[in-house]
Amino acid sequence: MRIDKLLSDMGLASRKESSAAARRGAITVNGTAVKDASRHIDPERDEVTYLGRRVEYRRYVYIMLNKPEGYVSATEDSRLPVVTELLSEEYRRMELFPVGRLDRDTVGLMLLTNNGPLAHKLLSPKHHVRKKYYFRCIEPLEEGVERRFADRITLADGYECLPAEIVLDPDRRGGVITLTEGKYHQIKRMIAACGSRVTFLERTVFGDISLDGTLARGEWRPLTDAEIASLGG
Ligand code: URA
Asked: According to CATH, where is 3.30.70.1560 located in the chain?
């Protein structure tokens, strides 16, 4: 791998910044300054420093974001703000993308990565990754809704959902829903099938990862090693 590619993949410097730094002697490989940032190194074995700091090579990066309302789950959009705009410049350079979609008005736990194969696996229907959502709705939900969720809700278009769990708030106008699939507007359509309308939706859990309560809306942090391991990453 070229040194300038390593520094740009790790979000440390653009190609141009790397070649300027190399010319100034600010990049070393195994203790020796290198003048040419296009030189090839082995990122797993060679020790590279940039501006005096050891460069830690990670092939893949994983982020947890507390998605705010109003952002599209995408890397670009011609009209609307996208979730990757919330990242720092360093992380924006890493070309991360959201693992799955949340609606523009849905908030909460969103994972971003540059690990395409893992994202694909987590989203594949056969993996049944568990997701939890907290919702509020207008009309109180009727008696027996728990049974209906467990027995498979049928959506307006005839789609039969996989068995799901709903645990209601005491006022029956909200609660926690656990799904093992992710169809378009699924929670909104399930609640509509039960005669109500969602007014608030927040994802709180994805697989074994829970939304970090210290992150305000719009804030993010890298996943811990244990969280990455729980995804199989
Ligand atoms: N279900 C929805 O209706 N919307 C989301 O964003 C996620 C799940």
From this structure: 130-206
Q: Spell out where 56-143 has E strands.
A: 62-67, 97-98, 107-113, 131-137
Q: Report helix, strand or coil for 121.
A: helix
- How buried is residue 25: exposed, middle or buried, by Cβ count under 10 Å (0-12/13-18/19+)? exposed
Closest residue (by CA) to atom 3 of ligand 1?
185
**Ligand 1: distance of its center to the CA of 62 in Å?**
22
Tens of each residue's pLDDT in the chain, 233 residues: 999 999 988 889 999 999 999 999 999 999 999 999 999 999 999 999 999 999 999 889 999 999 999 999 999 999 999 999 999 988 998 889 999 999 999 999 999 999 999 999 999 988 999 999 999 999 999 999 999 999 999 999 999 999 999 999 999 999 999 999 999 999 999 999 999 999 999 999 999 999 999 999 999 999 999 999 999 87
Best probe residue, ligand 1, of 123, 133, 183 (max atoms within 8 Å of C-beta): 133
Tell me the residue length of the chain.
233
Of 46, 77, 103, 212, which one is the catalytic site residue?
A: 103
| Active-site residue, 4 included | no
Ligand 1 centre to CA of 95 (Å) is: 24
CATH topology for 3-54?
A: 3.10.290
Neighbours of 165 (CB within 10 A): 15
> pTM here?
0.88
What distance in angstroms lies between residue 181's CA and the mean position of ligand 1's atoms?
Answer: 11
Lining residues, ligand 1, CB within 6 Å:
102-103, 106, 185-188, 201
Can you name the CATH fold of 130-206? Answer: Alpha-Beta Plaits (3.30.70)
Among 3.50.30.20, 3.90.220.20, 3.30.470.20, 3.30.70.580, name the CATH number for the domain at 62-125+208-231. Answer: 3.30.70.580
